[in-house]
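RETRY 2/3 - previous attempt timed out on the joint model. Re-submitting the same 232-residue input unchanged.
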Amino acid sequence: KNQVEQSPQSLIILEGKNCTLQCNYTVSPFSNLRWYKQDTGRGPVSLTIMTFSENTKSNGRYTATLDADTKQSSLHITASQLSDSASYICVVSAHSGAGSYQLTFGKGTKLSVIP
Amino acid sequence: ETGVTQSPTHLIKTRGQQVTLRCSSQSGHNTVSWYQQALGQGPQFIFQYYREEENGRGNFPPRFSGLQFPNYSSELNVNALELDDSALYLCASSLGRDITLGANVLTFGAGSRLTVL
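RETRY 2/3 succeeded.
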């Protein structure tokens, strides 16, 4: 069964500090991995998308890494801001052909940035 | 360029009733996918529509059905509502048949929050 596990479940950090969120997956056949930011009461917004051959991708203060061998990804947030408070969701795509498309979402890590 | 809009934003139904949720896709997008997000959980893929045909489905029973119209807007219908159907229902639009392709960025709406009593 395809699964995506995220840790920690929740995290509180001080404004200006860095943090790293983790994502482990058992999805096959792997197509790509995405990180989304979801503000409370809003839909998710894409941060990064990485395919099998990419092991790091940045979007401003967000840097995602991917180790396809160990099936792990991380999202590193640098110099956190109050507006970074949100849930961060890891999504892994599988594509087994013949029109079979699957997106498996993690439960998310709820990040709170405090002054 | 308009984003993805969903309606209604909130609604309350009772067990056994039927509900229809609506989604207008982003301009230029031809694929719509639907997700159920229970409180404190990640979204779960329900199904997707490409050019008015369903071409991918998650582990949801047949009482979850949908439509896509020629203008690429979409509806999600849920029959015989159960208490566990209470959730935020998200719609996402994208360009291209395969939503799993890395090049296909999903644009999500803000969701419709359904409460079943």
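Chain B has a mean pLDDT of 91. Closing ticket.
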